[in-house]
Amino acid sequence: MRMRALILPLVLTLAPFETSASSQEIPPATQFESVLADAEAYRRQVSPEYAMSKGDDTRAGELRDVSPRAHINDINATRDFLERIIAIDVAMLSTSDQLDYRLFRRQLEMTLEGDTFGDWMMPINARSGPHQDIPQMGDLDRLQTELDFEHYAKRLTCVAGQLLQLEETLRAGLAAGKMPPRLVIEAIPQQIRTARESALDRLRTPLTKFPASMPAATRARITQEIEATIPLIADAMLLFEAFLIADYLPMCRATTAASDMEGGADWYAFQLRSFTTTALTAQEIHDIGKREVARIRGEMMTVIAKTDWSAADLPRASLSDDARFAQFIEYLRTAPRFYCTTAEELLARYRSFCKEVDPHLPELFGTCPRLTYGVREIPRFMAPSQTTAYYQQGSPKRGEPGWFYANTYRLDMRPTYEIVPLSLHEAVPGHHFQISLANELEGTREFRKDLDSTAFVEGWALYCERLGIEMGFFTDPYDDFGRLLYEMWRATRLVVDTGLHAFGWTREQAIAYMTYHTALSALNIENEVERYIGWPGQATGYKIGELCIRALRAEAETTLGSAFDIRRFHDAVLLNGPLPLDVLEATVRAWIASEVERVKLQAQVIP
């Protein structure tokens, strides 16, 4: 899973953003370039975090404003950009500009359509919000110069104000009746308390990393500023916690389905379109999920038959598939051989495996990213409510590597047969590889590098788990079962997410379905189901995206036969940045046609 960016509002009020004028006398290509330049400048103005990732430290001492006022400004700016885009004669643009035009316009239109449902007023859940973001501020910054430390100290002074702005947004939701399920909010007050009482010391981490060249007086001043700010942050978190307990949580809805909200069915349909970048309905996604669950279950039974668990007790072969599967899952959940005894041991195994992957990358990819990455444990204060792992992207322009975060909480629920597929998904050739490569593309407009396409980003990472077969990492049947377990996990998501939000499933039904079909631990299943409840539709993007990429590869292999080059295919998929699936299909099919012509030309040249 790709970790969401920090959601931290800005204390200061932004000045109105001025856009460039356009007229009919200006060539369409120039008009288009002007809109894109203004949109990029606006994005950097309102999001200091984004600007910093691009090496722009103009507002590095500030944090993004997520108050209702800022949201209205963003929507007005989006509407303005769309009006300017619509006025451009797209037929007069070059072929490449026409593609960028369609992608940019689509992004603007989806933003405006999504705004009508008001989900921006429900910005927090157990896995995302100030209770997790604030304590990590010192971990996610790579500070090198005196100015970097000055900016960090100033950002901390914005935190108290940002909590007030976040409260304002949540109160807007109260007034509008846009309330999340109580289930996904009820743990947050305790999480805030934990962060406030035991995790704010993490904000002092940069104080241990002053450059040797920094004068002692400067170090003392910055240290004093940060030390004075941390108690103010703790006080602000205490007030925010009190607001949640007294005012917000009691008003959260008892229901869990998106369809239970006013306009919720339409919102969920929009969420599915947004996260899958397709027109698939909830019923179609539900049915695809059931077919995939049945297919993967058959493959699982084949792998189980290859294990020493099966060989050790031949009568097990005569059991029904359901009985044999249940006994095998119980074995996986309880056998000590599959669990590390310390967090350090688990992290060491992740790091060791990631190093094994690197030499295989040139065999499968014509282009590899330059940015490096590392493996860290998920901070322990937030680990109990977090997913199994996530990826935090780096920034070459700021000298920040990417980070693959693994969860070491409850080691008895972190089996080692998850190491291979999880590493392939989160690090390389999954999230770190794809996201870093997109950010390093030259000659590609900035908005294309991180285009919002969950189906592409997560579908690619899931596809990469299967690439482990070609790298030779699944010769051990238990590791291969771990791969199938993770694929089954994503297939059950299609059934469970749609079941919860469109077909009246309860939380208990969803947990029972995933317990029956997967070997995930009880803790992971509960966390996952609550994630789907709090983030409708997002979990469907993984499998839908992966199925699309696999289908395109099969089409390319069938069409090109012996001329198929896996390295060139992967470049065709990746070197346009993240794309909606329909655009990806058109792009790859155009590449297939060009490959057919290339092969024909080569045949004519070679006697």
Instruction: Let me know the number of strands.
Output: 3
Largest sheet, described in full? 3 strands, mixed
Q: Enumerate how many helices there are, as a single number.
A: 25
Low-confidence spans: pLDDT under 50, at least 5 residues?
A: 4-22
| Percent helix | 55-70%
How confident is the prediction overall: mean pLDDT? 93
Per DSSP, what share of the residues sits in E-state strands of 2 or more residues? under 5%
Can you tell me about this structure?
The protein is mainly alpha-helical and 607 residues long. The protein folds into 2 domains: 230 residues, no CATH class; 275 residues, no CATH class. Helices cover 59% and strands 2% of the residues. The protein has 25 helices and 3 strands. The chain has a 3-stranded mixed sheet with strand order 1-3-2. α14 packs across α16, α16 crosses α19 and α23 packs parallel to α25. The longest helix has 33 residues. It is globular, with a radius of gyration of 25 Å. About 3% of the residues have low confidence.
Give the secondary structure arrangement, pairings included.
Elements: H1 28-46, H2 48-53, H3 68-86, H4 95-115, H5 130-133, H6 146-157, H7 159-176, H8 188-198, H9 216-248, H10 264-276, H11 282-304, H12 308-311, H13 321-334, H14 343-357, H15 361-364, E1 373-377, E2 389-392, E3 402-406, H16 419-426, H17 431-439, H18 446-449, H19 454-470, H20 477-502, H21 507-517, H22 522-534, H23 541-560, H24 566-574, H25 581-605
Parallel strand pairs: 1-3
Antiparallel strand pairs: 2-3
